[in-house]
Design goal:
single chain; 173 residues; alpha/beta; Rossmann fold; 7-stranded mixed sheet; two-stranded antiparallel ribbon; 4 helices; globular
């Protein structure tokens, strides 16, 4: 039996604000066969990059990254919002449509030359993903790819990334 992952993504109109159609992965996470298929498919897409570590973006990106890293037998590092990680951190501030945001990683999270694949649940405009790639490179990592569960067509997020990009599903923005 083939599992259609798109059948397990709930669409919620007008969330978090009017005019936005939110693609909710919570329904996929609750379905063990669909969740296992998604992890297997992401791992298969990422394996050819031979990553040493997978980097997940807070917070739903953690849900995707941890099981894929375990399946591939590689490490998992967290990219978080400012002030959420203990110990010494390295920050990267980046521009949003209206203002700025900051992400950070622990200062010792990346070894120079480590092969890293960036993961998140959703690729929209690509701003946070591009900032994460810059931050990982600043620490000496070699970002070899990025993978997402969902990509929103029309927002051109992959154009902001200078690494190969894969997505399991594509939906209109």
């Amino acid at each position: 039996m083939t599992i259609r992952l798109e059948d397990h993504i709930r669409r919620i109109p007008d969330f978090p604000k009017p005019g936005i159609l939110f693609y909710d992965i919570a329904t996929l996470l609750r379905h063990p066969d669909a969740w296992a298929a998604a992890v297997d498919q992401m791992a298969a897409a990422i394996a050819p990059y031979r990553p040493d570590v997978l980097a997940g973006i807070e917070s739903r990106g953690f849900l995707v990254t941890a099981p894929v890293a375990l399946k591939l037998g590689c490490g998992f590092l967290m990219i978080r919002k400012k002030g959420k990680l203990p110990g010494q951190t390295v920050r990267h501030e980046y521009a949003l449509e209206y203002g700025t945001d900051t992400i950070e990683v622990q200062a010792d999270a990346v070894s120079p030359g480590q092969r890293i694949v960036l993961l998140d649940d959703l690729l929209a405009t690509g701003g946070t993903a591009a900032a994460a790639v810059s931050l990982l490179r600043r620490l000496g990592g070699e970002v070899v790819g990025a993978s997402f569960m969902i990509e929103l067509d029309g927002l051109r997020g992959r154009e902001r990334l200078d690494v190969p990009v894969s997505a399991l599903l594509s939906f209109p923005a």
